Amino acid sequence: MVAIVPVILSGGTGTRLWxxxxxxxxxxxxxxxxxxTMLQETAERAVGPGFAxxxxxxxxxxxxxxxxxxxxxxxxxxxxxxxxxxxNSAPAIAAAALxxxxxxxxxxxxxxxxxxxxxxxxxxxAALERAVTAARAGRIVxxxxxxxxxxxxxxxxEAGPELAEAPGVRAVARFVEKPDAAKAxxxxxxxxxxxxxxxxxxxxxxxxxxxxRFAPEVLQAVGVALEGAKRDLDFVRLGAEAFKAxxxxxxDYAVMExxxxxxxxxxxxxxxxxxxxxxxxxxxxxxAAGNVAQGPVELVDSQGCYVRSExxxxxxxxxxxxxxxxxxxxxxxxxxxxxxxxxxxxxxxRASGRPEATQHRRVYRPWGHYEGLIQGDRFQVKKIQxxxxxxxxxxxxxxxxxxWVVVNGTAVVHRDGEDILLRExxxxxxxxxCVHRLENPGMIPLTLIEVQxxxxxxxxxIVRLEDTYGRS
Length: 472
Hints:
There is one protein chain. By secondary structure, the chain is an alpha/beta fold. The chain folds into three domains: 5-272, Spore Coat Polysaccharide Biosynthesis Protein SpsA, Chain A (Alpha-Beta Complex), CATH 3.90.550.10; 288-349, no CATH class; 362-466, Jelly Rolls (Sandwich). It is 22% helix and 35% strand. It contains eleven helices and 30 strands. The chain has a six-stranded antiparallel sheet with strand order 20-21-22-29-24-27, with no helix packed on it. A hairpin with a 4-residue loop joins strand 18 and strand 19 (331-335). Helix 3 (89-101) crosses helix 7 and helix 6 packs across helix 7. It catalyses: alpha-D-mannose 1-phosphate + GTP + H(+) = GDP-alpha-D-mannose + diphosphate.
């Protein structure tokens, strides 16, 4: 049997899981239901006999996060397609389908989001086998989850008759937008409607044909972007201008709601899109009082709460059905029943220009990460960690000088043509305007404290003269 090609879509931002999930580090890169991240969980479901090398479509800014996290799984080294801008799922799927069609038009693609939870993987694989049969018969198959509650946060699929050519797979009668509470209750009682999981199975040729028929402007723009793609280390960088010309549209609106080839395989696999803090409460083990506590958390006389801390001791007394999430720079408190309204808060933070809306205090870079510790008038202090064998760009600053103190590991500092070797508890001064670069030549992570002093301390005061990672 020809292997199934897993296609992992990793372009989401997970706004409703703020303050944990933000644009700079969205929910697929966090461990939410186990000690593995959601991206890693997704990749591990498509490993072993019957599965080909995966394709991952992700935001260009997350390329090194994706590569690093997938290296820690048993999945084969993926082909990673980089989106220069987000354009929703239809252009991302078009890129993967066109890439695969050039190699094997009959290959079956299994398209899935990087941030969903699935508890019953054997049941998932059984449903996948049924879906593949229908896909080889020319269908585009979605997975319909058996509803367990009158959920208003999901779209629904009304299932039609079973397909003669694919036992266990049914035609799609219609797609239904997210319903109100009364209609969702009717759907649950009626038994004909399924939650739309956003997973699809189809051949590359079928996807391309239906995109050509119903969304030719998407296919044309993505085709040009793929023709102009460039290899960059382990990545395929899609042509920026052409990809930006693609309409921003989901595969549901672009194709699935229009095609006669739509089919659905009903499945009970313990699926959740983890689209809110309430859904995380439902997915996690709870104590006798119905609480979920993760991290340094203490609860007293509280029931039905979800409390998570990423480091700071968080105490909760006398609360019921409440969500409390604590990160290093933000705290969220709300009734669990208002979980879908987090997006309203994030929109307000964005409108007021708060960086916490989209950025974490810890910022990831191709070479490692940094995080702000203290900021004052004309100075700030950061902690920088550089992975073994990695180095920052050769750069200079117009508005600030820097002091570096090594606290762990070994550093090579290039300063105005001079190479300086630093070990633990040794330091170097980088005057305003000097050309410099930091490198970790060792086998362990390099950690240092950086003190910046100057009139302007923004991250855009960097003039890159040379960069290993192709940044300007």
